[in-house]
Amino acid sequence: MRTDSSPGTLPAREHLPAAAAGTPVLDVVIPVYNEEKDLQPCVRRLHEHLTRTFPYAFRITIADNASTDTTPQVSRRLEAEIAEVRAFRLEQKGRGRALRAVWSASDAPILAYMDVDLSTDLNALLPLVAPLISGHSDLAIGSRLARSSRVVRGPKREFISRSYNLILRGSLQARFSDAQCGFKAIRRDVAQALLPMVEDTGWFFDTEMLVIAERAGLRIHEVPVDWVDDPDSTVHIVKTATEDLKGVWRVGKALASGSLPLDRIARPFGDDPRDREIKDVPKGLARQLVGFCVVGGLSTLFYLLLYSGFRTFSGSQVANALALLVSAVANTAANRRLTFGVRGSGGAVRHQAQGLVVFGIGLALTSGSLAALDAAGGDPAHSTELAVLIVANLAATVLRFLLFRAWVFPERRESTLVASHTPGRPPHPPLPMRAGGHHFTYDDQFRAGEAADRTWGDATMQLQPVRPTDTDPRDAR
Fold first, then answer.
1. Residue 237: its pLDDT value, please?
2. Is 21 contained in some domain?
3. What CATH number does the domain containing 170 carry?
């Protein structure tokens, strides 16, 4: 059975219901800093596109990052002219800070953001949010590096982008393809649990959010996008790259030390097919034997390759010990996750220590076999050594499985825990609105340090597709 330390705190991932109109389904945030020139055409173009193509109610929120030009005035003018536009003013810079503040205050069940330059083709917006509305995914990102993406940008930006994502894959084992594309969406219930764990307030905010979400087992949907580079971009590449590398180091250290409470946003997330009782699918001992045999076969091949490599510059005993040590660590990690279903970092060090004890027993068996072979035959051929080691490893494998099952990963008989909303907890307080309008102002209510301790509400969103017959007295369309 599974030995997760916590069943998670997120609700089941479900299709958003279509009911009475009211709360917008989608809230698209546009973070801006001194964008007086591009803001108005961007918002009008986005509003026209959503009005024409998006089947639900929506909102566009302008998040002004302490602009010093006329951006605040442009924002307020757009808010006054277009019913679906809201203006949000922050007195501190930082794209991550802006997204955290607006997303935390929003009542829309789907939250998204895009850059003001609209480098990404807006036709990708509906495919981006559709998996979140349906309940299929938890986050969605646009990818400029997918095979079917069509991207126009210079070699410098291309090199930097691909190098950065290669660093993420190598250092943080990220599997998503494009961390920095300014075109992302997230379900509100996921954001409420995830945002308090994200520390960065700048450009690394996206990457940190995605890495934590992926490590917690959330589903990230990627959408190939058409993207045209903005030659007038105000991003300082060197400074941003330096801050990003610092962020990679900080997040990597937190993941390695286990200081991130990933169980807050871990499964269950609805009906997990791995928990179902399905006919002819091996369970219990049979399932573990199947998994152990697969891992064991791959580990044996890995071990033999290592032994052959180490044997070229060392004796048979040293090569055997080194090959067994490396393959044992990999074998324990693989069996922990795949055979015995242990997820999360809890107990990983103890499991590896116990695995090394099992490794010592296997080392004794295989080393004893080699010693017996040397004593019997003088200088045996390499093929003979391999044959003896295969037989010895088979015996060690049977013993390893028994020890893993009975000692390292024993089956725990525990009552099932169910995560649910605790009645009586107050919902997250909304940010104040100015009398006579809907212009949000950012005060000191929301801070990243306080967010981790904040209790969130879980109100159900009521949604309804916008049809041609629907009317809104504020809207002339």
1. 67
2. no
3. 3.90.550.10
227 and 322 in a single domain? The answer is no
Same domain, 214 and 303: no
**Tell me: the pLDDT tens digits for 325-366?**
888 888 888 888 888 878 767 788 888 888 888 878 877 887
Do 165 and 181 form a contact (C-beta atoms < 8 A)?
no
Q: How many domains does the chain divide into? A: 2
Predicted structure pTM score: 0.59
Both 381 and 447 in one domain: the answer is no
Domain that holds residue 348: 284-408
Q: Whole-angstrom Cα distance, residue 68 to residue 255? A: 38
415 domain residue, yes or no: no
Lowest-pLDDT range of 73-77, 234-238, 334-338, 346-350:
234-238
In a domain, 157, yes or no: yes
Using CA atoms, how far apart are residues 21 and 57, in angstroms rounded to an integer? 8
